[in-house]
Design a protein that fits this description.
This protein is of the alpha+beta class and 117 residues long. It contains three helices and six strands; from the N terminus they run E-H-H-E-E-H-E-E-E. The protein starts with 9 loop residues before the first strand and ends with a strand.
C-alpha cells in the first residue's frame, strides 16, 4: 500500500545472468566476451518481450524484466533458457543463464521497481 490506502500493483520480476561469464572473459578477452554476453542478453530480452515483459535494465551480464503475471514471467524464463541453450558452444563452453523469479507487490518509480518483491 502507498500511503496506507492505495494497493500496490503486483509484478513478476525476473533476473537472469549469464552463467560462467567470468570464464568467457578470461578465455576470449574483453571484446569477444562482451559480444557473447550481449548476444545472451538480446536473446533474453527477445524471449521477455514475447511474453509482454518490460526490460527494466541490464547490469553487466544480468537483465531485469517485469511481467504482468507470474505465468508470463515463468514462460519467458523457460524461453530464455531454450534460446540461449540453442547457441553453439563458444570456446568449448556451452552458453547458459541462471534465472530467478519473484511475484508480488511493487513500487514503480522512474522506470525501476522497488519493494520486498
Amino acid at each position: 500500500m502507498i500511503d496506507g490506502d492505495t494497493p500496490l500493483p503486483s509484478r513478476c520480476l525476473v533476473f537472469a545472468d549469464v552463467a560462467g561469464s567470468t570464464r568467457l572473459y578470461e578465455r576470449l578477452g574483453d571484446k569477444a566476451a562482451l559480444r557473447v554476453v550481449d548476444l545472451c542478453l538480446k536473446l533474453a530480452a527477445a524471449a521477455s518481450t514475447a511474453y509482454q515483459g518490460e526490460v527494466v535494465k541490464t547490469i553487466g551480464d544480468e537483465i531485469m524484466v517485469a511481467f504482468p503475471s507470474a505465468e508470463q514471467g515463468l514462460l519467458a524464463a523457460c524461453d530464455m533458457q531454450q534460446r540461449i541453450a540453442a547457441v553453439r558452444p563458444i570456446a568449448g563452453q556451452p552458453l547458459a543463464i541462471r534465472v530467478g523469479c519473484q511475484w508480488g507487490p511493487v513500487v514503480a518509480e522512474d522506470g525501476d521497481y522497488f519493494g520486498d518483491t
